[in-house]
Amino acid sequence: MSERNTVLRSLHDIGLAAWFGGSLMGAIGLNGAANRSADDEMSTARIASAGWAAWTPVNAAAIGAHLVGGAGLLGANSARVAYQQGVGASTVAKLVLTGAALAATAYTRVVGKKVELASSLDPRDAEMAAEHPVKLEQAQRQLVLLQWAVPALTASVLVLNALHGEQQRPEQQHLGVMRRAASPFATAGGAGLAAARRSRKRGVPGRSRDA
Questions:
Q1: 72-86 confidence digits (pLDDT tens)
Q2: Which of 84, 89, 136, 168 could form a disulfide with 176 if both were Cys (CB 3.0 to 4.6 A apart)?
Q3: Which residue from 178, 173, 10, 157 is spatially nearest to 77, judged by alpha carbons?
Q4: φ and ψ of 174, to 5 deg
Q5: Where is this region: Disordered (predicted)?
């Protein structure tokens, strides 16, 4: 491709890198430090919740930048998605994984917010926690699983992003377009040949030249 999409690509890549890196650092660094530093379950939850609450606005901005950049790149490469073999399938897979990562991130924040309120020393948070009661131990078990789901899903998106980069090479574009162009022709030709053979077996006359 001759035209550049530097701004869109930067938003897409930096946003995804922050989304993946922040979730991985939180799972290993923040949660690990909270577990080592606190003496009881409530203190562990309070320390980890404070760190995740501080990261949430930055993470939201990173996700937003990634989605804006991704939507722009999808529009800019719509012709390749439609006509280069393999690009459409990898794009669908990337969209599915991005959606799963968004769902996992949102649910993690919902559960994390409940833990934050339940472990807070602020009386106002205690009142809000009473309105939405949660079993702290059960919620923390959920977070243990979710803390690895987000980096795993975003890492998968990064792998597909690398695949898209490979598919954008000139030789890959040419090969993919040629294969895509040949596939419908081969399928149509094969179907027509099979129909003609069935017609001959049944004794069905073909169309006359005067028709």
A1: 999 988 888 888 777
A2: 84
A3: 173
A4: -60, -45
A5: 188-211
Place of tokens 């989605």: 67
d(CA 31, CA 143): 10
Every domain of the chain and the residues it spans: 6-168, 170-203
Could you tell me if 59 and 22 are in contact, meaning their C-beta atoms sit under 8 angstroms apart?
A: yes
Give residue 205's pLDDT.
45
pLDDT per residue as tens digits for the range 21-63: 999 999 999 988 888 887 777 888 888 888 999 999 999 999 9
Using pLDDT thresholds of 50, 70 and 90, give the confidence band for residue 129.
low
Question: What does the pLDDT read at residue 7?
Answer: 95
**Using only C-alpha atoms, what is the Rg of the chain?**
26
Full 3-state SS string of the chain = CCCCCHHHHHHHHHHHHHHHHHHHHHHHHHHHHHHHHCCCHHHHHHHHHHHHHHHHHHHHHHHHHHHHHHHHHHHHCHHHHHHCCCHHHHHHHHHHHHHHHHHHHHHHHHHHHHHHHHHCCCHHHHHHHHHCCCCHHHHHHHHHHHHHHHHHHHHHHHHHHHHHHHHCCHHHHHHHHHHHHHHHHHHHHHHHHHHHHHHHHHCCCCCCCCC
CB 165 within 8 A of CB 98: no
